Every structure is written in C-alpha cells, then in structure tokens.
Amino acid sequence: MARKGATLMSDRKAERQQKVDRIIENLASSAEGREILKESLHRAGIAMMNVISRETFPVVTDPDRLARARRGIILDTETTGVDVTSDEIIELGMVEFTYDQDGILSIGKSFEALNEPLRKRIDAEVEGITGISNDMVAGHRIDPGEVSEFIGDASLIIAHHSNFDRKIVELNLPEVGFDTRPWGCSLDGVDWKARGKNSRSLEALALSEGYVFGSHRADADCMATLFVLNSMDSNGKTAFAEMRDSAATKSLFIIAEKSPFSRKDEIKNRDGYKWSSDGTEAYGHKAWHVEIPDTPEAVAEEAAFLRDIYGKDVSLPCYHVDYLTRHSARKPSQKELFRTREVAEIAAAADQYETDRRAQHTFEL
C-alpha cells in the first residue's frame, strides 16, 4: 500500500513538473514572455542568462539608418603567446557587420581559419585556455588572399584588444592590407567604468549584460564583442557609437621617457598611462606612455601634469596618431616633441586673446 501511495505521489510530481515545463516553454517563446520569466527569477534571486548567438542579435530595420549603413569587421585572434614579435596566430576569426554612427545594424557572414605555427608549438597552457591543440592546427594555413577578400570594402576593423590584435595580424599577414584600414578598439575606446562596469574583460562585460558565451575561441569572442558593443548607457548611447567617436578622434601619443622613478606611482595612477617594458607598445621606448585627445584643453592639462612630475619644463617624444596608425607597431610618419613650455605659452596666449576679445566686445557695447 505504501509503495502504491509513493508511486501515485511520484506521478503527480511528474505531472506538475510537465505543467511547469510547458509554462516556461511558452514564456520563453516570445520576447515579452522572456522578460516576465527573467523578472520572476530575478525576484527569487536567480539570474537568467542569455546565450550569445547570431540568431538573437537584434536587427535594425529603420530605412533611414539602413541608408547610412557602412560595413565593418570584428576580428579576434588566438595565438601561441602574448609577444607580438615572436608569437604566431593559431586561429583567426572575423565577423562582418553593418553600422551607422549610432550603432550596429546587423550581423553578416563569418570567417574562421586555423593556422599551424612555424616557429613554436602550442604549449599546454595555451591549449588549456583556447582548446586548440597542435593536432587541430596540423597542416592548416591562413590564406592571405581569402582574408583580403573577406575584408573587402570594410570601413572599420574592431578588436577587443586592438593594441595586440592589430600588431600581430599586421606582422603575421603583412600582405593583407590591415595596415591600410581604420581600426577601433572595444577595450580602450569605451569608458566602461563610466558605464558602471567593474571590469573591461570581454567575459565580465558580457556577463554584466546578462550574456554567456564560449570564450577564448576567435569566433565566439567576435560575437561577444558585437553584443557588448550593442549595449547602451543611461542616455541611450551605444558602446559602439562611443568607440566609433573615440576611433575617429585624432590624438597625441606622448612618451614620458626618463621619468623620475620616485614619481612612478603617480604616473601609474593617472588615467591612461601604461608601462611598456620592452618598447613594443611605445614605438621602441621602454617608458610610461599615454594617448590623449589632440585638443587644447587636454594638451594643457597633460603639460601641467608632466611639468609637475619632472619638476621642470620638459621636451618629450610624441606622435600624432589617428585610426590608421593607432594600435599599430608601425611608427607614425613623423616624430615630434611635446614641449611643456610651449604648451603653457600657447595656453597663456589663448587666454589673453579671449580676455582681450571680451574686453573689446564689452567696450563696443
């Protein structure tokens, strides 16, 4: 009798579970239902994550925006290591997309290629991170012609760490033409902290937007970058639009060579400064470096900071950079000097001009 009662309870439990499964299935079949399900789980302290996929990316159909559409490429590499001068690509992934000044409109076709390194084998650590083994890449080579054809007429190339990815594709695939294309960076080209993010890593950014993906493979990382760039801030501006604006802004790359060791913590803690231990990130200089907007306000502020750090006026190596040279290992065509004294004199002259203009304007009234 007890066994019969237990069986009956088990059947009822299975029936209730089937009903719950059907309710969840119905809710999950529509966007409105998913929001209801997500909110209900949230109240219970459970987060519902969305799996990143091509099919779930929102497509823009506004004809006015489509009329302004341009073509871009998201790119990601997996490599034998993190030294751009000696390591090699083991996988190249690219995804095409269309965009306008406000954001991403749609996702297009993909490109994936494995590559057997010639100078070094894939070690256990890299295989553990990427899942790519020496057996997987054996006999595979990236065809530069296929890469060039895929890039085609793209107006913009983006990577989540362009400071690495651009350098390594230009060095490993010099004939493709990566050096002739404008580049943007979803890591450095967006103020993620101002957007309330605690980390700039692709995994953390995706999680903060409620997405999960199979990371550390080139194709998955490309798709995740597109989803992350499609996120909006509190004012409705997409991360892509911010990154695009950042990429289009001309800037000054200043190298704080021979900076006082006693002031290193102040330099380290100042926004934007990075240390180049081997010179690869600072055009051959082993020094602190920073990239600032090429505007009078930013230049004057940086000159004041550097004058304080060095304790005197200094002349430091600098380069004008834009989206054609930014993140590349290639030096811009002309090396210049950032002279803090000249910046101060120019700023003073500009202030005096504005004072005189206002005085004259007041007199004429």
Write the layout of secondary structure elements.
Blueprint: H1 2-28, H2 31-43, E1 50-51, H3 63-67, E2 70-79, E3 89-100, E4 103-114, H4 124-130, H5 134-137, H6 144-151, E5 156-159, H7 162-172, E6 183-185, H8 202-208, E7 211-212, H9 218-229, H10 239-248, E8 251-256, H11 264-269, E9 274-275, E10 288-293, H12 296-310, E11 315-321, E12 335-339, H13 340-364
Parallel strand pairs: 1-7, 2-5, 5-6
Antiparallel strand pairs: 2-3, 3-4, 8-10, 8-11, 9-10, 11-12
Helix pairs in contact: 1-2, 8-9, 12-13
Describe what you observe in this structure.
The chain is of the alpha/beta class. The protein has 2 domains: 54-248, Nucleotidyltransferase, domain 5, CATH 3.30.420; 251-350, no CATH class. 41% of the residues lie in helices and 19% in strands. It has a 5-stranded mixed β-sheet, with helices on both faces. It has a 5-stranded antiparallel β-sheet with strand order 9-10-8-11-12. Helix 1 packs across helix 2 (31-43) and helix 12 packs across helix 13. The longest helix is centred in the first third of the chain and has 27 residues, at 2-28. It starts with a helix and ends with a helix. Mean pLDDT is 87; it is low at 356-365.
